[in-house]
From TrEMBL:
The keyword Transferase does not apply. CDD domains: NAD_bind_Leu_Phe_Val_DH (cd01075). Belongs to the Glu/Leu/Phe/Val dehydrogenases family. SMART domains: ELFV_dehydrog. This is Amino acid dehydrogenase. It comes from Chelativorans salis. Keywords: NAD, Oxidoreductase. It holds the Pfam family ELFV_dehydrog.
Length: 373
Protein backbone atom coordinates (compact mmCIF):
# COMPACT_ATOMS: atom_id res chain seq x y z
CA UNK A 1 0.00 0.00 0.00
CA UNK A 2 1.11 3.54 -0.66
CA UNK A 3 2.11 5.61 2.27
CA UNK A 4 0.89 9.13 1.57
CA UNK A 5 1.93 12.11 3.63
CA UNK A 6 0.68 15.64 3.79
CA UNK A 7 2.49 17.42 0.92
CA UNK A 8 4.11 20.05 3.11
CA UNK A 9 6.12 17.70 5.27
CA UNK A 10 9.67 16.74 4.50
CA UNK A 11 11.86 14.02 5.93
CA UNK A 12 15.27 15.13 7.15
CA UNK A 13 17.95 14.49 4.48
CA UNK A 14 19.97 11.44 5.40
CA UNK A 15 23.46 11.08 6.88
CA UNK A 16 26.19 13.67 6.50
CA UNK A 17 24.74 15.02 3.30
CA UNK A 18 25.35 18.72 2.51
CA UNK A 19 22.01 18.74 0.73
CA UNK A 20 19.56 21.50 1.56
CA UNK A 21 15.93 21.32 0.55
CA UNK A 22 13.80 24.44 0.53
CA UNK A 23 10.21 25.20 -0.29
CA UNK A 24 10.24 27.69 -3.19
CA UNK A 25 6.49 27.60 -3.89
CA UNK A 26 6.04 31.27 -3.05
CA UNK A 27 8.87 32.30 -5.43
CA UNK A 28 7.28 30.44 -8.34
CA UNK A 29 3.85 32.07 -8.08
CA UNK A 30 4.93 34.91 -10.42
CA UNK A 31 5.52 32.47 -13.29
CA UNK A 32 2.61 31.86 -15.65
CA UNK A 33 3.43 28.12 -15.63
CA UNK A 34 2.80 28.06 -11.84
CA UNK A 35 -0.96 27.58 -12.29
CA UNK A 36 -2.11 26.27 -8.94
CA UNK A 37 0.85 24.10 -7.98
CA UNK A 38 0.67 22.66 -4.48
CA UNK A 39 4.36 22.64 -3.64
CA UNK A 40 7.72 23.23 -5.27
CA UNK A 41 10.91 21.98 -3.64
CA UNK A 42 14.44 23.01 -4.48
CA UNK A 43 17.33 20.71 -3.59
CA UNK A 44 20.87 22.06 -3.63
CA UNK A 45 24.19 20.51 -2.79
CA UNK A 46 27.27 22.57 -3.65
CA UNK A 47 29.57 19.62 -3.07
CA UNK A 48 27.92 17.30 -5.61
CA UNK A 49 26.74 20.13 -7.88
CA UNK A 50 23.08 19.20 -7.49
CA UNK A 51 20.37 21.70 -8.34
CA UNK A 52 17.07 19.87 -8.51
CA UNK A 53 13.48 21.07 -8.64
CA UNK A 54 10.59 18.83 -7.64
CA UNK A 55 7.27 20.35 -8.64
CA UNK A 56 4.10 18.87 -7.20
CA UNK A 57 1.13 20.13 -9.14
CA UNK A 58 -2.00 18.39 -7.88
CA UNK A 59 -2.59 15.44 -5.59
CA UNK A 60 -6.40 15.24 -5.70
CA UNK A 61 -6.19 11.84 -7.39
CA UNK A 62 -3.26 10.52 -5.34
CA UNK A 63 0.39 11.18 -4.52
CA UNK A 64 2.44 12.85 -7.25
CA UNK A 65 4.13 10.62 -9.80
CA UNK A 66 6.36 11.90 -12.58
CA UNK A 67 9.75 11.36 -14.17
CA UNK A 68 13.04 13.08 -13.44
CA UNK A 69 14.55 15.05 -16.30
CA UNK A 70 18.29 15.77 -16.38
CA UNK A 71 18.93 18.64 -18.76
CA UNK A 72 21.29 21.63 -18.93
CA UNK A 73 18.63 24.34 -19.06
CA UNK A 74 20.02 27.73 -19.98
CA UNK A 75 18.73 29.34 -16.78
CA UNK A 76 17.15 28.43 -13.46
CA UNK A 77 13.91 30.07 -14.58
CA UNK A 78 13.83 27.96 -17.76
CA UNK A 79 14.30 24.81 -15.68
CA UNK A 80 11.62 25.84 -13.20
CA UNK A 81 9.18 26.62 -16.02
CA UNK A 82 9.94 23.24 -17.59
CA UNK A 83 9.32 21.47 -14.26
CA UNK A 84 6.05 23.35 -13.72
CA UNK A 85 4.72 22.65 -17.20
CA UNK A 86 5.73 19.01 -17.00
CA UNK A 87 4.20 18.41 -13.57
CA UNK A 88 0.92 19.99 -14.62
CA UNK A 89 0.92 17.71 -17.67
CA UNK A 90 1.37 14.71 -15.36
CA UNK A 91 -1.77 15.65 -13.42
CA UNK A 92 -3.77 15.62 -16.64
CA UNK A 93 -2.04 12.50 -17.92
CA UNK A 94 -2.85 10.54 -14.77
CA UNK A 95 -6.44 11.76 -14.79
CA UNK A 96 -7.01 10.65 -18.40
CA UNK A 97 -5.14 7.35 -17.97
CA UNK A 98 -7.19 6.62 -14.84
CA UNK A 99 -4.24 5.97 -12.53
CA UNK A 100 -4.61 6.80 -8.83
CA UNK A 101 -1.84 9.38 -8.91
CA UNK A 102 -1.43 13.11 -9.01
CA UNK A 103 0.97 15.16 -11.07
CA UNK A 104 4.57 15.95 -10.26
CA UNK A 105 7.87 16.17 -12.06
CA UNK A 106 11.53 16.70 -11.24
CA UNK A 107 14.21 18.54 -13.17
CA UNK A 108 17.92 18.30 -12.39
CA UNK A 109 19.87 21.10 -14.04
CA UNK A 110 22.87 19.25 -15.44
CA UNK A 111 24.26 17.92 -18.67
CA UNK A 112 23.37 14.20 -18.57
CA UNK A 113 26.45 13.35 -20.66
CA UNK A 114 29.08 15.10 -18.52
CA UNK A 115 27.64 16.17 -15.16
CA UNK A 116 25.50 13.24 -14.02
CA UNK A 117 28.06 11.90 -11.55
CA UNK A 118 27.42 9.23 -8.89
CA UNK A 119 27.78 11.93 -6.23
CA UNK A 120 25.15 14.13 -7.92
CA UNK A 121 22.77 11.18 -8.18
CA UNK A 122 23.43 10.20 -4.54
CA UNK A 123 22.58 13.68 -3.45
CA UNK A 124 19.39 13.61 -5.54
CA UNK A 125 18.50 10.22 -4.03
CA UNK A 126 18.72 11.85 -0.59
CA UNK A 127 16.30 14.52 -1.77
CA UNK A 128 13.92 11.87 -3.08
CA UNK A 129 14.08 9.96 0.20
CA UNK A 130 13.18 13.17 2.03
CA UNK A 131 10.11 13.45 -0.22
CA UNK A 132 9.03 9.86 0.32
CA UNK A 133 5.26 9.56 0.50
CA UNK A 134 4.56 12.64 -1.59
CA UNK A 135 6.59 12.13 -4.78
CA UNK A 136 7.37 9.03 -6.84
CA UNK A 137 9.69 9.25 -9.80
CA UNK A 138 11.04 7.30 -12.79
CA UNK A 139 13.08 7.84 -15.98
CA UNK A 140 12.73 10.83 -18.29
CA UNK A 141 15.04 12.62 -20.72
CA UNK A 142 18.60 12.27 -19.41
CA UNK A 143 17.79 9.70 -16.71
CA UNK A 144 18.37 6.08 -17.71
CA UNK A 145 17.27 2.72 -16.32
CA UNK A 146 20.74 2.33 -14.73
CA UNK A 147 20.29 5.74 -13.03
CA UNK A 148 16.85 4.73 -11.75
CA UNK A 149 18.33 1.50 -10.38
CA UNK A 150 21.07 3.49 -8.65
CA UNK A 151 18.55 5.93 -7.10
CA UNK A 152 16.38 3.03 -5.94
CA UNK A 153 19.21 1.70 -3.79
CA UNK A 154 18.93 4.88 -1.68
CA UNK A 155 15.33 6.00 -2.09
CA UNK A 156 12.22 3.80 -1.99
CA UNK A 157 10.11 6.15 -4.10
CA UNK A 158 11.74 5.31 -7.44
CA UNK A 159 9.87 3.17 -9.97
CA UNK A 160 10.59 1.96 -13.50
CA UNK A 161 13.62 0.06 -12.17
CA UNK A 162 15.18 -3.19 -13.35
CA UNK A 163 13.73 -5.05 -10.38
CA UNK A 164 10.31 -3.42 -10.86
CA UNK A 165 8.48 -2.63 -14.09
CA UNK A 166 11.66 -1.87 -16.06
CA UNK A 167 12.33 1.00 -18.43
CA UNK A 168 9.01 2.68 -19.32
CA UNK A 169 10.23 3.91 -22.73
CA UNK A 170 9.35 0.83 -24.83
CA UNK A 171 5.87 0.85 -23.28
CA UNK A 172 5.50 4.54 -24.08
CA UNK A 173 6.59 3.81 -27.67
CA UNK A 174 4.05 0.97 -27.85
CA UNK A 175 1.25 3.36 -26.86
CA UNK A 176 2.45 6.04 -29.30
CA UNK A 177 2.60 3.49 -32.12
CA UNK A 178 -1.02 2.45 -31.59
CA UNK A 179 -1.98 6.08 -31.06
CA UNK A 180 -0.58 6.93 -34.50
CA UNK A 181 -2.65 4.10 -35.94
CA UNK A 182 -5.77 5.46 -34.21
CA UNK A 183 -5.10 8.89 -35.72
CA UNK A 184 -4.65 7.37 -39.19
CA UNK A 185 -7.87 5.40 -38.79
CA UNK A 186 -9.75 8.53 -37.79
CA UNK A 187 -8.34 10.59 -40.61
CA UNK A 188 -8.14 8.04 -43.43
CA UNK A 189 -10.44 5.21 -42.43
CA UNK A 190 -7.53 2.72 -42.34
CA UNK A 191 -4.77 2.29 -39.81
CA UNK A 192 -2.32 0.69 -42.23
CA UNK A 193 1.18 2.14 -42.06
CA UNK A 194 2.29 0.72 -45.41
CA UNK A 195 3.88 3.58 -47.32
CA UNK A 196 2.87 6.17 -44.72
CA UNK A 197 5.54 8.82 -44.25
CA UNK A 198 6.40 9.50 -40.60
CA UNK A 199 8.82 12.25 -39.58
CA UNK A 200 10.34 11.42 -36.19
CA UNK A 201 12.01 14.17 -34.17
CA UNK A 202 14.33 12.69 -31.55
CA UNK A 203 15.87 9.19 -31.68
CA UNK A 204 16.23 8.60 -27.95
CA UNK A 205 14.68 5.81 -25.88
CA UNK A 206 11.11 6.37 -27.10
CA UNK A 207 11.84 7.72 -30.59
CA UNK A 208 14.08 4.78 -31.45
CA UNK A 209 11.66 2.14 -30.16
CA UNK A 210 8.88 3.87 -32.09
CA UNK A 211 10.95 3.85 -35.30
CA UNK A 212 11.47 0.09 -34.92
CA UNK A 213 7.73 -0.51 -34.80
CA UNK A 214 6.91 1.90 -37.61
CA UNK A 215 9.63 0.43 -39.82
CA UNK A 216 8.43 -3.10 -39.14
CA UNK A 217 4.94 -2.08 -40.27
CA UNK A 218 6.11 -0.55 -43.53
CA UNK A 219 6.21 3.18 -42.74
CA UNK A 220 8.71 5.38 -44.59
CA UNK A 221 10.78 7.18 -41.96
CA UNK A 222 12.32 10.64 -42.02
CA UNK A 223 14.34 11.30 -38.88
CA UNK A 224 16.40 13.82 -37.01
CA UNK A 225 18.29 14.21 -33.75
CA UNK A 226 20.82 16.67 -32.40
CA UNK A 227 23.06 13.62 -31.96
CA UNK A 228 24.32 12.83 -35.47
CA UNK A 229 25.42 9.30 -34.54
CA UNK A 230 21.79 8.43 -33.82
CA UNK A 231 20.84 9.69 -37.27
CA UNK A 232 23.50 7.56 -38.93
CA UNK A 233 22.29 4.52 -36.99
CA UNK A 234 18.69 5.19 -38.08
CA UNK A 235 19.74 5.47 -41.70
CA UNK A 236 21.38 2.06 -41.45
CA UNK A 237 18.69 0.34 -39.36
CA UNK A 238 15.56 1.68 -41.04
CA UNK A 239 16.70 3.08 -44.37
CA UNK A 240 15.49 6.39 -42.95
CA UNK A 241 15.89 9.72 -44.70
CA UNK A 242 17.87 12.11 -42.52
CA UNK A 243 17.11 15.78 -42.01
CA UNK A 244 18.75 18.53 -39.99
CA UNK A 245 16.97 19.23 -36.67
CA UNK A 246 15.48 22.51 -37.90
CA UNK A 247 14.11 20.91 -41.10
CA UNK A 248 12.05 18.11 -39.55
CA UNK A 249 8.90 20.18 -38.95
CA UNK A 250 8.52 20.93 -42.63
CA UNK A 251 9.36 17.37 -43.74
CA UNK A 252 7.17 15.92 -46.47
CA UNK A 253 5.35 13.36 -44.35
CA UNK A 254 1.84 12.20 -43.40
CA UNK A 255 2.60 12.10 -39.67
CA UNK A 256 4.90 14.26 -37.58
CA UNK A 257 6.00 12.44 -34.40
CA UNK A 258 7.74 14.78 -31.93
CA UNK A 259 9.81 12.58 -29.60
CA UNK A 260 12.41 15.08 -28.33
CA UNK A 261 11.70 18.05 -26.07
CA UNK A 262 8.65 20.27 -25.68
CA UNK A 263 7.47 23.52 -27.23
CA UNK A 264 7.94 22.44 -30.85
CA UNK A 265 4.44 23.43 -31.95
CA UNK A 266 3.98 27.18 -31.91
CA UNK A 267 2.54 30.09 -33.88
CA UNK A 268 5.90 30.29 -35.62
CA UNK A 269 6.32 26.59 -36.48
CA UNK A 270 2.77 25.34 -37.16
CA UNK A 271 2.47 27.11 -40.56
CA UNK A 272 5.48 25.14 -41.84
CA UNK A 273 4.04 21.70 -40.96
CA UNK A 274 3.26 19.51 -43.97
CA UNK A 275 1.97 16.50 -42.05
CA UNK A 276 -1.77 16.08 -41.52
CA UNK A 277 -1.31 14.31 -38.17
CA UNK A 278 0.83 15.23 -35.16
CA UNK A 279 1.28 12.26 -32.86
CA UNK A 280 4.41 11.68 -30.79
CA UNK A 281 5.78 11.07 -27.33
CA UNK A 282 7.24 14.45 -26.34
CA UNK A 283 5.66 16.14 -23.35
CA UNK A 284 4.33 19.68 -23.77
CA UNK A 285 4.52 19.70 -27.54
CA UNK A 286 2.49 22.90 -27.72
CA UNK A 287 4.31 26.10 -26.83
CA UNK A 288 0.93 27.46 -25.68
CA UNK A 289 -2.28 25.55 -25.02
CA UNK A 290 -4.13 27.86 -27.47
CA UNK A 291 -1.84 26.93 -30.35
CA UNK A 292 -3.83 23.72 -30.82
CA UNK A 293 -6.50 25.86 -32.47
CA UNK A 294 -4.01 26.74 -35.21
CA UNK A 295 -3.50 23.03 -35.84
CA UNK A 296 -7.25 22.49 -36.06
CA UNK A 297 -7.67 25.41 -38.45
CA UNK A 298 -4.91 23.96 -40.64
CA UNK A 299 -6.80 20.61 -40.65
CA UNK A 300 -4.00 18.91 -38.74
CA UNK A 301 -5.19 16.21 -36.36
CA UNK A 302 -3.38 16.57 -33.04
CA UNK A 303 -3.11 13.60 -30.67
CA UNK A 304 -2.82 15.32 -27.26
CA UNK A 305 0.64 14.50 -25.92
CA UNK A 306 -0.36 13.42 -22.44
CA UNK A 307 -2.91 10.97 -23.85
CA UNK A 308 -0.76 9.29 -26.49
CA UNK A 309 2.39 9.12 -24.33
CA UNK A 310 0.74 7.71 -21.18
CA UNK A 311 2.06 4.14 -21.69
CA UNK A 312 5.15 4.67 -19.55
CA UNK A 313 3.17 6.27 -16.74
CA UNK A 314 0.60 3.46 -16.77
CA UNK A 315 3.43 0.92 -16.59
CA UNK A 316 5.32 2.52 -13.69
CA UNK A 317 2.10 3.28 -11.81
CA UNK A 318 1.26 -0.43 -12.02
CA UNK A 319 4.37 -1.09 -9.95
CA UNK A 320 2.74 0.73 -7.06
CA UNK A 321 -0.57 -1.18 -7.29
CA UNK A 322 -1.62 -2.90 -4.05
CA UNK A 323 -0.97 -6.39 -5.47
CA UNK A 324 2.39 -5.44 -7.04
CA UNK A 325 3.36 -5.14 -10.71
CA UNK A 326 1.32 -7.18 -13.18
CA UNK A 327 2.69 -6.74 -16.71
CA UNK A 328 -0.40 -8.17 -18.47
CA UNK A 329 -2.75 -5.89 -16.54
CA UNK A 330 -0.53 -2.86 -17.28
CA UNK A 331 -0.39 -3.63 -21.00
CA UNK A 332 -4.16 -4.11 -21.10
CA UNK A 333 -4.50 -0.55 -19.80
CA UNK A 334 -1.98 0.74 -22.33
CA UNK A 335 -4.07 -0.93 -25.03
CA UNK A 336 -6.87 1.49 -24.12
CA UNK A 337 -4.86 4.49 -25.39
CA UNK A 338 -6.03 4.23 -29.04
CA UNK A 339 -9.68 3.96 -27.93
CA UNK A 340 -9.29 6.98 -25.64
CA UNK A 341 -7.77 8.93 -28.54
CA UNK A 342 -10.50 7.87 -30.99
CA UNK A 343 -13.16 9.07 -28.54
CA UNK A 344 -11.35 12.40 -28.11
CA UNK A 345 -10.97 12.85 -31.89
CA UNK A 346 -14.68 12.14 -32.43
CA UNK A 347 -15.82 14.45 -29.61
CA UNK A 348 -13.54 17.28 -30.76
CA UNK A 349 -14.80 16.95 -34.32
CA UNK A 350 -18.44 16.91 -33.22
CA UNK A 351 -17.93 19.98 -31.06
CA UNK A 352 -15.56 21.68 -33.56
CA UNK A 353 -13.02 22.22 -30.83
CA UNK A 354 -9.29 21.51 -30.57
CA UNK A 355 -8.53 18.01 -29.31
CA UNK A 356 -6.46 19.27 -26.38
CA UNK A 357 -9.29 21.50 -25.19
CA UNK A 358 -11.69 18.55 -25.07
CA UNK A 359 -9.06 16.42 -23.29
CA UNK A 360 -8.29 19.06 -20.67
CA UNK A 361 -12.01 19.37 -19.97
CA UNK A 362 -12.35 15.62 -19.33
CA UNK A 363 -9.26 15.64 -17.09
CA UNK A 364 -10.50 18.66 -15.10
CA UNK A 365 -13.90 17.03 -14.53
CA UNK A 366 -12.17 13.97 -13.04
CA UNK A 367 -9.82 16.01 -10.86
CA UNK A 368 -12.63 18.22 -9.55
CA UNK A 369 -14.82 15.19 -8.81
CA UNK A 370 -11.93 13.59 -6.86
CA UNK A 371 -11.24 16.82 -4.96
CA UNK A 372 -14.93 17.14 -4.03
CA UNK A 373 -15.23 13.50 -2.89
P1 LIG B 1 15.73 10.59 -24.52
O1 LIG B 1 16.58 11.52 -23.76
O2 LIG B 1 16.07 9.14 -24.51
O3 LIG B 1 15.66 11.06 -26.04
C1 LIG B 1 15.49 12.37 -26.45
C2 LIG B 1 16.20 12.50 -27.78
O4 LIG B 1 15.87 13.76 -28.37
C3 LIG B 1 17.73 12.44 -27.66
O5 LIG B 1 18.25 11.51 -28.59
C4 LIG B 1 18.15 13.88 -27.97
O6 LIG B 1 19.44 13.95 -28.57
C5 LIG B 1 17.05 14.31 -28.91
N1 LIG B 1 16.87 15.76 -29.04
C6 LIG B 1 16.90 16.70 -28.07
N2 LIG B 1 16.66 17.92 -28.61
C7 LIG B 1 16.43 17.72 -29.93
C8 LIG B 1 16.11 18.57 -31.01
N3 LIG B 1 15.98 19.88 -30.86
N4 LIG B 1 15.94 18.02 -32.24
C9 LIG B 1 16.08 16.69 -32.42
N5 LIG B 1 16.38 15.83 -31.42
C10 LIG B 1 16.56 16.34 -30.21
O7 LIG B 1 14.22 10.82 -24.02
P2 LIG B 1 12.97 9.86 -24.18
O8 LIG B 1 12.80 9.10 -22.92
O9 LIG B 1 13.05 9.16 -25.48
O10 LIG B 1 11.78 10.93 -24.21
C11 LIG B 1 11.47 11.67 -25.37
C12 LIG B 1 10.28 12.56 -25.09
O11 LIG B 1 9.14 11.79 -24.72
C13 LIG B 1 10.49 13.56 -23.95
O12 LIG B 1 9.78 14.75 -24.21
C14 LIG B 1 9.87 12.86 -22.76
O13 LIG B 1 9.48 13.74 -21.74
C15 LIG B 1 8.69 12.21 -23.43
N6 LIG B 1 8.16 11.06 -22.72
C16 LIG B 1 8.98 10.00 -22.46
C17 LIG B 1 8.46 8.90 -21.79
C18 LIG B 1 9.31 7.69 -21.52
O14 LIG B 1 8.74 6.64 -21.15
N7 LIG B 1 10.62 7.76 -21.70
C19 LIG B 1 7.12 8.89 -21.38
C20 LIG B 1 6.31 9.99 -21.70
C21 LIG B 1 6.86 11.07 -22.35
Amino acid sequence: MLHVREPRTLRKPAGKSKLTISDITADAVRLSAYEGHERIWLGRDNESGLTAIVAIHNTALGPALGGTRVWPHESFEAALTDALRLSRGMTYKSAIAGTAFGGGKAVIIADPKTEKTPSLLSSYADMLAALEGQFFTAEDVGLSLADADFLRTRAPNVVGTGSGSGNPSPVTAHGVFFGIKAALKHRRGTDSLKGIGVAVQGLGSVGWALCEKLHEDGAALTVTDIDTTRIEEAKRAFGATALAPDAILSAEADVFAPCALGGVLSRETIPSLKAEIVAGSANNQLARHEDARLLMEASILYAPDYVINAGGLINVAAELAPGGYDRAAAMARVAQIPKTLSDIFARAERQRRPTNEVTAEIAMERIKAAAAA
